[in-house]
Amino acid sequence: MNRTDRLYALVEELRAVAPRPRSARWLATRFEVSTRTVERDISALQQSGVPIWAEPGRTGGYALDKAGTLPPVNLTPAEAVAMALALHRLAGTPFHASAATALRKVLAVMPPAAATAARELAARIHVAGPGPATPVPAVVADALTARRVLRIGYADRGGAPSARDIEPLGYVGTPHHWYLVAWCRLRDAVRAFRTDRITSAVPLAERVTRDLSPGDIDLHEPDVRALSLG
C-alpha cells in the first residue's frame, strides 16, 4: 500500500471506531508498517486539518473526532478516476451537469497530492463515447426537483412542432434516448417526451401535484426499472 492510500485508510479506520482510540502499535500491525511510520502519518494528517488527537495512558492511542468537518468518504486517486469514468457515461442525460458538479466537489476535498495523482492517472485513460449526445436544457434537467409545470416546444418524430404545458413526473433512460415522462395537458394523458426533441422550455409558476404511477411508463422497453441507490 502506498502512502497516499495508507493515509486514507488510517482516517477510515479511526472513523470506523470513533470515538474509541487505536494505538500506534495496533495501527502499525494493521498496515504492516513501523510505529514510527504511523506516527509520521498521523502527524501529517493532523497538519492537514484532520481532527485526530492522542489519548495518553495504557488504553490510549489516536482518536478521530467524528463531528469534525471531514468529507463523508475519502477516495483514493483510482477511485476518483473510476467515478470520473462512470460520470462520463452520463453525458447527454438530464444529470450530466449535476455529475460534473459532484466530481468537482470530490476533487476539491481530496488532499492536493491525491488530486494531482488522480489527474495524472486520468490523463492516461482515453474513452470513446457512443456518439455525440444532445445536451438537455437545464430547466428540463431540473424539472423533477423544481416541481413546476413546464411550457415546452416539442417536435414529433416527423419534425412537426407543437406547444404544450406539461407536468413533469419522471425520467426514463433507454440505451438510445432519455425521456421526460409528464402529464400532457394538450393530450390530457401521460406522455413520454424525448429530451432531444424538446426545443424550448419555460417553467411556469404553477406547481406539479401529480405523482408518477407504475402504469404511467410504457415505452415497450422490458428492462426499464426504477433506479436503486443500494
SSE order in H/E notation? Answer: HHHEEHHHHHEEEEE
- In total, the number of strands is 7
Outline: elongated
Strand order of the largest sheet: 6-5-4-3-7
CATH fold call of the largest domain: SH3 type barrels
Structure classification: alpha+beta
N-to-C terminal Cα separation, in Å? 28 Å
Q: What proportion strand?
A: 15-25%
Just give the CATH class of the largest domain: Mainly Beta
- What is the count of distinct domains? 3
Provide the helix percentage.
25-40%
Low-confidence parts = none
Mean pLDDT: 82
Reconstruct the topology from this structure:
Blueprint: H1 3-17, H2 24-31, H3 35-47, E1 52-55, E2 61-64, H4 77-88, H5 96-109, H6 112-122, H7 138-141, H8 143-146, E3 148-155, E4 161-173, E5 178-184, E6 189-194, E7 198-207
Antiparallel strand pairs: 1-2, 3-4, 3-7, 4-5, 5-6
Helix pairs in contact: 2-3, 4-5, 4-6
Brief descriptors of the model:
230 residues; Arc Repressor Mutant, subunit A; Transcriptional regulator; 23% strand; alpha+beta
Please provide a brief summary of the model.
This protein is of the alpha+beta class.
Description:
Residues 6-62 form the Helix-turn-helix type domain. Residues 138-201 form the WYL domain. This is Transcriptional regulator. It comes from Spirilliplanes yamanashiensis. A five-stranded antiparallel sheet has the order 6-5-4-3-7. The protein has three domains: 3-64, Orthogonal Bundle (Arc Repressor Mutant, subunit A), CATH 1.10.10; 77-122, no CATH class; 138-216, Roll (SH3 type barrels). The protein is built from eight helices and seven strands, in the order H-H-H-E-E-H-H-H-H-H-E-E-E-E-E. The radius of gyration is 25 Å and the shape is elongated. The longest helix has 15 residues, at 3-17. It has 230 residues and is an alpha+beta fold. A hairpin with a 4-residue loop joins strand 4 and strand 5 (178-184). Helix 2 (24-31) packs across helix 3 (35-47). 35% of the residues lie in helices and 23% in strands. The model has no long low-confidence stretch (mean pLDDT 82).
